[in-house]
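Suppose a colleague, Dr. K., hands you the sequence of a protein chain of 408 amino acids and asks what its three-dimensional shape might be. Before reaching for any lab equipment, you can write down a predicted structure in token form. Begin with the sequence itself:
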Amino acid sequence: MGTADVEAVWRIESARIVAALTRFTGDFGLAEDAAQEAVAEALVSWPLASPANPAGWLMATARRRAIDAIRRRTALQDRYALLAADLAVDSAVDEEADPDKIDDDVLALMFVSCHPVLSPEARVALTLRVVGGLSSEEIARAFLVPVPTVQARITRGKKTIAAAGVPFELPPAAERRERLGGVLSVLYVIFTEGSTATSGDRLLRPDVAYEAIRLARTLAALQPDEPEVHGLLALCELTAARFPARTGPDGSPVLLDEQDRRRWDFSAIRRGLVALAKASTRGLGPYGLQAAIAATHASAPSVEATDWDRIVVLYEALGRVAPSPVVELNRAVAVAMASGPAQALTIVDELIASDRLPGSHLIPTVRGELLARLGRRPEARAELELAARLCANQRERSVLLRKAAALS
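The predicted structure, expressed as tokens, is then:
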């Protein structure tokens, strides 16, 4: 087995292994470190002799590493107790490494890595590292930050969890529901970065987006009675369904009205619609409403045939339950399609007057499009050029400059 095989097993099993070790040791940071040491050992030994049960091998090796670390820092009498515990749990290795077993340990791991005591950046880094199994290098590439920055976030996150005495356990049902929003927001941030990179020379980072979908599926399996979990999963599936048509062969963006909808992933659309139906059982929350908007796009044969009136209504509902300037801006786009650009421009100008998205390229992008439709070409060109200066994603910037040049 080579490096790719080790990485594949780790990506699938990492959350279960780290979760089991955390429960066993009671130390989140130690568990993650021991698991990483086991992977390093696998990279050396597996090419020489492949284990019959790779997941079980990783679990057993990581447990031994954890025990060694505890032995080095505990008193002699504690070591004997630990050795006895080790013998007692050895028989459980195969069960804990069962690839078909999804238990509450993984769910507890999600809640620990997304604990509110951590900064948002640390939550994202820890979730991708300990639940998703990504390396520091992969996380750094995904968010275009230096590797030492990611490593520092992970280290600080583990130290913060230890200092705060965060227990490795599922929060009580009421508290879990309160904190579920934090877990969902982390997965949403990960997916959003994958679906439209905030900076760099690529519009999409599909590997990041698909990792968020994988984590959302896991969460949906562990929390099947939470509608918003299914809502987020539906949103991710329905948005990712358009990935194959969103870029050209050279990676350049393809706008919605120019996409070949035959290239959309209809299996993902079906999965998204199933998840949306589950999310609708008790009324749609913020993620469910966004998924319903994505579903309206997914079911339309063209931009012109899209039910824009429905999308306007959905954005109005979203604005009531989760108000934000981005929601208002998206509503303006839908209003422009349903009722014309003049009414939409009023909404955008109100956003500018209230200075609710300072420094964002999104407002001048939308305002430039609306002005162009109204025939106010010099103003439209100036807005699009401003948007290009503010946009950190090189692919998006090239589209904005192309549009501005066409208005000359």
